[in-house]
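Instructor's aside before we start: the two examples that follow are unrelated to each other. I chose them only because their records fit on one page, so don't look for a connection. First example below.
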Amino acid sequence: MRKSPGCSWIEVDKKVHIFSGGGSPSHPEHEMILKKLGKLGALLREAGYCPDGSFVMHDVDEEDKVHSLRDHSEKLAVAYGLLKVPEGMPIRVMKNLRVCGDCHSTIKVIAQVTGRDDFEGY
């Protein structure tokens, strides 16, 4: 038996953008998305958010766990949505697997710090 790799997708301008976890540059605007995640990370830390490493399945140090959590597909899709979806329009991210607890918490804080309460599915 084998588990399907996690992926998330978002539709922007009638085009579906698919993201996979692990930080592999699978999107043409990957660098821009990572920059957005970096800026969001600073806002999240200011808001008191701390990544929950218990959702990382690997036996790695804390820094690597934080890095691994940052690269979850739903966070990449949300960052892309923040870059491309106009304010006031819902950011609707779909996923093939369930959302981990850290991503759920992170996206709730992202909504608070960005003033965007139009995330659907979280």
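Example two begins here.
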Amino acid sequence: MKPANNHGIKRVFRATGFSMQGLQSAWVNEAAFRQELILALFMLPIALLLDISTLERLLLILTLFIVLIVELLNSAIEAVVDRVGDEIHPLSGQAKDIASAAVFMSLLLCGICWAIVIAPLLW
């Protein structure tokens, strides 16, 4: 049930608190999120230190965030599917597989962007 006085700056603070709870839950319960976050924290300084244009730097950083965002959505979909029931159903498997494919596509996008930006620096 929604609180009656949930508006203005109070709503922003409550929403921020819920977001922090979600990030904490993902860190505690989702190994893939932990791995991708650690990788992003390792790659972020590299993106900041490379001798590249601002636009290229932005592209590298954005793709790291995209991977994390898609992983959070994948975890949320999996949690909802698991909450609905334990029985095996083709649509449950389909939902999980499609969400997993979205994570794969975001990782592929990240890898391609990083390769395209970094390749000229190596040759």
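Residues 31-122 form a domain with the Helix Hairpins fold (CATH 1.10.287.3610).
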